[in-house]
Amino acid sequence: MSTSNETVQGSPDPTDARGREMQLAQLSADERVVDVSPSRDFGDNAVCCELERWIKQRWSGEELNVRMTFVEAQFRKRLSTYKFRAIVWRVAQILTWIVITVLGLLITVFAGYHFGHGFIIVAGAAIATLTTASNALRPGTEADGYNNGRRSLRDDGWALLNDIDPYRQLPHTEPGQVERYRLFVSRVHEIVDTKRTATTLNLDASGPPAPQGR
What we know:
Elements: H1 2-10, H2 17-25, H3 29-32, H4 42-56, H5 61-113, H6 117-137, H7 139-161, H8 174-197
């Protein structure tokens, strides 16, 4: 019974800033290990886990809930969505190339042996349709755009965590941490809005460099 009382009395107060730091220090090794399961990209998941840890060390209560929800909904899930859509568009691009190439080869073979006149007509029409659709939908450019958006989000998360521009200029005081978070939120919205309006990202020079699309 005395041991139980001592444990309760010795536990850190979660509402106190020092208490939160003590709680973080008492986390088991398993809780601090970054999830590197095959279902998630290591780079994306690592920056999300570090951002969540950064937030937990600095806020509590309702502020903590709001910031954690933002990272989950607007950062982690968007990274996952951008990755998935980039893969879908890239697969569509590759499949279109393969179908056009195969049909072109078959047309050449059939024309060389002077048979399959009907197939040649249908295959030629299919190639024309696929080429028009590819030029209109631009699957390669779409894939590059989603990859650029994902990399820009991830780069900005690491910029915040590593204290590099544009976050380096902000102080490490409590008000400075609030300003860092607000700047991070603003830049996430900027990247998302840019992705919505243009496939190829072209942020200002103060932002993290984004690879240019095709």
